[in-house]
Design a protein that fits this description.
Layout (H helix, E strand, L loop, with lengths): L3 H19 L3 H46 L5 H31 L7 H11 L8 H7 E8 L2 E6 L11 E9 L1 H10 L12 E8 L1
Parallel strand pairs: 2-4
Antiparallel strand pairs: 1-2, 3-4
Helix pairs in contact: 1-4, 2-3
Length: 208
């Protein structure tokens, strides 16, 4: 009998690939995931913009104070000009960054996942409702991250990946309980004892 860790992977693979093939809600799940991913990314960029704007405002206020310090004779003209130039250089850099970040938000496209193509691919390979071969896992699983003995993240790809840092969006989550695990084990002539099984959470992400 395979080690329980190997069995866990096989059971998860069966659940994930068969569910993707049969799911009528996959397209809706992907659309919702794309919206959340874009919103999250845009929010992060917007925070950077807001921080840069606040810094620019502070530098401009600082330049005004330098004028008063120079007028009161607290700093020399040379000191004033040097401090002013340093702040203005930083302001120009930040303004360039702000414009770049704004363009990043405007140019960002929604991630594209062809859900029908995924189903077509899975149907072409084999009927994975009943069995998922190691070849199928090797072909479409980019990475499996073990968060804990009962929590796994599966990163799948259904098109070639050319980037060293591909983007994945979360699309669904499956809970594999004892009943499902025992049914799988029974169909594959294996045994799972009640005391050895804990429900598994499998989070699925797909490359875009």
């Amino acid at each position: 009998m395979p080690a329980i860790s190997e069995l866990k992977i096989k059971i998860q693979a069966q659940k994930i690939f068969s569910s993707l093939l049969e799911s009528n809600e996959l397209a809706d799940d992907v659309i919702e995931a794309k919206k959340k991913s874009k919103t999250k990314n845009d929010s992060s960029v917007q925070r950077e913009i807001n921080t840069a704007i606040k810094t620019v405002d502070k530098l401009r206020e600082r330049n005004k104070r330098y004028i008063n310090l120079h007028a009161d004779g607290d700093i020399s003209r040379e000191e004033y000009l040097n401090l002013k130039k340093e702040n203005e250089d930083t302001i120009r850099q930040l303004e360039t960054k702000i414009e770049s970040l704004k363009e990043k938000i405007n140019d960002r496209k929604d991630p594209e996942i062809d859900t029908e193509q995924i189903k077509k691919i899975l149907n072409t390979i084999l009927d994975c409702r009943y069995d998922v071969s190691p070849d199928l896992i090797d072909k479409f699983v980019y990475q499996i991250t073990v968060e804990s003995p009962t929590h796994f993240i599966w990163k799948l790809h259904f098109k070639p990946i050319y980037s060293d840092n591909p983007e994945f969006v979360p699309v669904c989550q499956y809970i594999i309980d004892e009943e499902y695990a025992k049914e799988y084990a029974k169909n594959h002539h294996q045994v799972i004892h009640k005391s050895s099984w804990q429900d598994i959470t499998a989070d699925v992400q797909i490359a875009v």
